[in-house]
Amino acid sequence: MRTIWNGSISFGLVSIPVGLALATKPAARQSDVSFRMLHRECRTPIRQKRWCPTHDREVGPDELVKGWEVAKGEFVIVEEEDLEAIERTDDSRSIEITRFVPLTEVDPIYFDRTYFLAPSDTSAQRRPYVLLLDALKETNMAALGRFVLRGQEHFALIRPRGEALALETLFLEEDVRSQAEIEEAVESTEVRDAELDLARQVIESLAAEFDAAELQSEYRRDLRAMLEAKLAGEEVTRPEPTAAETPVVDLMEALRASVAAASGKKPAAAKKAPAKKTAARPKAKAAARKSA
Q1: What is the CA radius of gyration of the chain?
Q2: What is the CATH number of the domain that holds 17?
Q3: Among 15-29, 84-98, 123-137, which stretch is predicted with the lowest mean pLDDT?
Q4: pLDDT tens digits, residue range 44-54?
Q5: Is 130 a member of any domain?
Q6: For the chain, how many structural domains are there in total?
Q7: Residues with Cβ < 8 Å from 230, sequence gap 6 or more?
Q8: Residue range 122-134: average pLDDT?
């Protein structure tokens, strides 16, 4: 496995040699096909120029400087030396573990990017790696720490993934947006017991084990097929638009139709008797959040 960083995991007097390797492909957040911008007439790749509208000319890399805009048209100039002065220069190349936390308590919303931690090539140095892996699996815990990668400080969570250790770089708390507005809008909304019962039936009818092999992108498939067809000189035709089904407005009818579709039966007739309502969500939580 090709590693981009080599160092160690350290906690207490324990040091575990590891290598850091990307767990996903570099273009995983995009399509697996990248495009170049061409001049339609001659099919030549175009170049993006750095243009100064004040001097009406192209500027070179040595003429560029970073600027922080504090007001419209007003900038604070930041030199490369200024940034280098605050970069973290950690020569230890160590992932310092500060504590162990229950894995189930870490919200995945804080996960930024996933890496694999590769063990040492030496058999004797792999033992502490396996020991940490087995201990985390047995206790269902994860290791929280920090390290420096390319001069940038990162918080990290080390967790077991099968028979390997995975490292998640973490967003800071200030990077995650608040969901208080959503909770406030939801907490005063009532749902009926009958609706909740039908919703459970829909969930149960579609319940299955997670299978990553099912995560297939139809867009990527169609994009590849279209490119292969164009390469072969075939004419690409636009598919006929499909007529959208008329949505069921009534929530109960929509739930019944969903249950019937999942079970292959016709939806039962709606009962006219009013269903019992569940209690509205307490507003005390909202007041507590606002005062926090």
Answers
A1: 28
A2: 2.40.290.10
A3: 84-98
A4: 999 888 999 99
A5: yes
A6: 1
A7: 236
A8: 92
